[in-house]
Amino acid sequence: MKTIDTMEALELFTKIYAEKYNGQLLEPGEKGVAVLKNCTMIVELTEDKVLKMEFSGSEPIYIDENLDMYVADGEGDED
User: Fold this and answer.
1) How many CA atoms lie within 13 A of 43 on its CB side?
2) pLDDT tens digit string along 27-72?
3) Cα(76)–Cα(51) distance, rounded to whole angstroms?
4) Which residue spans within the chain are E strands per DSSP?
5) DSSP state of 27
6) Residue 5 gets which letter from DSSP?
7) Residue 77's pLDDT is what?
8) Hey, how many other C-beta atoms are within 10 angstroms of the C-beta on 12?
C-alpha cells in the first residue's frame, strides 16, 4: 500500500481548498478539514501564522447535514 507524506497531503488540500474557495487560502485563525480515504486531516493556520496539521485515523461521525451551525449576517435577527 502506498502512503503519502504530510507535505503531499497539504499540497493536495491547498489546491482543492483554493479551487473550492475561488483562489482563497486559509487566513490566520482559520481551520480546514479534509476527509481522506482512511483518515481525517485538520489543517490550521494559527493567529501567529504557524501551520498545524492533525490526522485522525478514526472514521468521521456525520451529524444531521441539515443542522446549521453558522448563520449568515442578518438571518435569525428579531425585529
Assistant:
1) 18
2) 999 999 998 888 899 999 999 999 999 998 877 788 877 877 777 7
3) 34
4) 30-35, 40-45, 51-56
5) P
6) -
7) 54
8) 14
